[in-house]
Amino acid sequence: IVDSRSASRLESCMEKLGQQQRQCVRLAFVDGYTHSDIARTLSTPLGTVKSWLRRSLQSLKQCMDA
Q1: What is the pLDDT of residues 7-20, one digit of tens each?
Q2: What pTM did the predictor assign?
């Protein structure tokens, strides 16, 4: 369960990500795309998508924990 304060904080943390990283996170966790789906959608190598997601989740965790 996410309260409005947590949702607001998450949105603020998402804004700190780069556009492509933010788009990857939304495609994966909001739209349910697989890594391969994201790579195809963004015309980006699969390894790059995986790296973006891993780094983005690390950044979001640090931001949310701060």
Answers
A1: 899 999 999 999 99
A2: 0.86
